[in-house]
Amino acid sequence: MSTPGSSGTPGSSGTPGSPGIPGSPQAGTVRAAGCVLWRRAPRSDDGIEICLVHRPRYDDWSHPKGKLKRSEDALAGALREVLEETGHHATPGPRLPTVHYVANGRPKEVSYWAAEAQTPGKFIPGREVDRIDWLVPTAARAQLTQPRDRHLVDALVSELGILGSTGAR
User: Fold this and answer.
1) Model-level pTM?
2) How far apart are CA 13 and CA 124, in angstroms?
3) Spatial CB neighbours of 28, under 8 Å, sequence gap ≥ 6
């Protein structure tokens, strides 16, 4: 598990933005961070639910995430985004895979962590996120718009030691 002060990819070296150094983002890469937010299922002793956010601008379902502020630590940014988008404070857990893709013609790198939702939380719909949904892992995988986000559900299930994707231990 990464410590709260670490924002680099495990095994990375070099300075962020250093071209040609393995593990470092390309110059011009948009840095973002988020969490696969989960909670113990309220109606089950041993299952979990994953929080997905609906972004009206893109009409999609994704994990809570967002661009990092200048010099912001990735984990701090991920937890800030979770709070802004879902209304929940979260307890960070293990680092999950980093996702790389191109958005608006620029490379984007999104660092993710597993994070358990603290209660109570209060979601307030806004311009950026208008709905959230808490779903068991199989339903969350199906609801996610981008295939690249689905493997993060699998990574969370693996990290939590859940045998089935329904949440059964």
Assistant:
1) 0.81
2) 40
3) 17, 106, 107
